[in-house]
Design a protein that fits this description.
Pfam families: CpsB_CapC (PF19567)
Helix content: 40-55%
Number of domains: 1
Order of helices and strands: EHEEEHEEHEHEHEHEHHHH
Organism: Candidatus Thiodictyon syntrophicum
Catalytic activity: O-phospho-L-tyrosyl-[protein] + H2O = L-tyrosyl-[protein] + phosphate
CATH architecture: Alpha-Beta Barrel
Shape: globular
Radius of gyration: 17 Å
Oligomer: single chain
Number of strands: 10
GO molecular function: manganese ion binding; protein tyrosine phosphatase activity
CATH superfamily: Metal-dependent hydrolases
EC number: 3.1.3.48
Length: about 270
Amino acid sequence: MVDLHSHLLPGVDDGAPDLTTALAMARLAVADGIAVMACTPHIYPGLYENQGPAIRRAVTELQAHLDEADIALRLTCGADTHLAPDLVAGLRSGRVPTLHNSRYFLLEPPHHVAPPRLEETVFNLLTAGYVPIITHPERLDWIEDRYAALVELARHGAWLQVTAGSLTGRFGAGARYWAERLLDEGWVHILATDAHGVDRRPPLLAEGRRAAEPWVGAAEALQLVATRPRGILEDSDPATLTAALGLVGVVAPSAGRSWLRKLFIHR
């Protein structure tokens, strides 16, 4: 499997605080079946001032520690990027790293308040040739009020990444409901761990794949954690990826499973 969202780099944000924790997280990821992990620290102006060159150096250093410890995990670069007025310029300059130097990058909206010009921002990013992958929409406090807007963003070219743990209840009943609904209606492009530690938000992806299977089937669940993430690392054209892999957002929702969503509304 390929995990494209993790806070594995030690001491750079609210993820792994030190190398010992990072190595323990890496071992746990390998045991879970993860072969490739993108290190995606926060870029949050005023709080986490991470930049592309420093992230790349940190990934190289951590990979050397993994190799020395005989941990069979391959690392690549990225960032969990917050909205900023100069985001396109940052991507073009390399100050904001994309995933494995591809056109795809992680875009994290504010958790508690819907940003006023999210649609305009995403449109500008798509026009500039980038594919924003909106991280953990199911965990946003404002998803109920702006659900239709998020679906429209996905319909017009943005991608959605759901956290694997949301599907197992790690983030509460609300996040699980929205994750399942997004899956059932066909708007989830990839699953990722958003790992921050060993015990708190661990790097476990297989549980999300298994939890997704009743909603999308085993074949599509594998696409969410393996085939499609590898396509991102290869910088495959998004239209090719979605057409060749039969991205479920193109297909009408399954009427046979829709009734199940009602079971989770009041959990």
